[in-house]
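Lecture notes, unit on protein representations.

Consider one protein chain, 213 amino acids long.
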Amino acid sequence: MLTVHHLGKSQSERIVWLCEELAIPYELKLYERDRVTLLAPPEYKALHPTQAAPVIFDGDLVLAESGAIMEYIIAKFGRGRFTVPADHPDYPQYLYWFHAANGTILPSLGRNMLMGMLNLTADNPRVAALRARLERHLQMVEARLGEAPYFAGQEFTAADIIMVFCLTTMRYFMPVNLTPFPNILAYLQRISERPAYRRAMAKGDPGMALLLT
């Protein structure tokens, strides 16, 4: 059976959510972050050389990287559900946002988080440049969600599953005020109405407040 190793408040929530959306059987193993360092515990780090979430086991296979895991699960267990065919007009948007999540949005949030830890002043040129870059990315997200209800277009896809973490749980580590982005906020309300999302978050992070506003 597929085993999903979920580290609390981490990207592995995407994998739990995907499994719930696909309604496939899986075993869920939960791990808590160290209360002081907020890093993964030793038993999670031992799962894979990356020492980071997410990680899945499927028989003898041990796989990391959320995008790779999502593609693997969709291909093997989901029969291509929540993807967009290459000949569909929405395919470029699907492809872009699926990869932008970890290639652009999340790194931008992470760099700003690290700059915040350094306690640099707001007028520091590097701080200002990184904040401006993050603002541009958020404006792009806002614009896209003003064009269509979901990242790929009219239908919910894996691009949404991989993007939502950046707009929600990641804000526990890098706070972002979404008030200036009404399209993002409306989108998160649509996501909150998905039963599979609610189930996944309740199973993976019970008691955690969902940052949907």
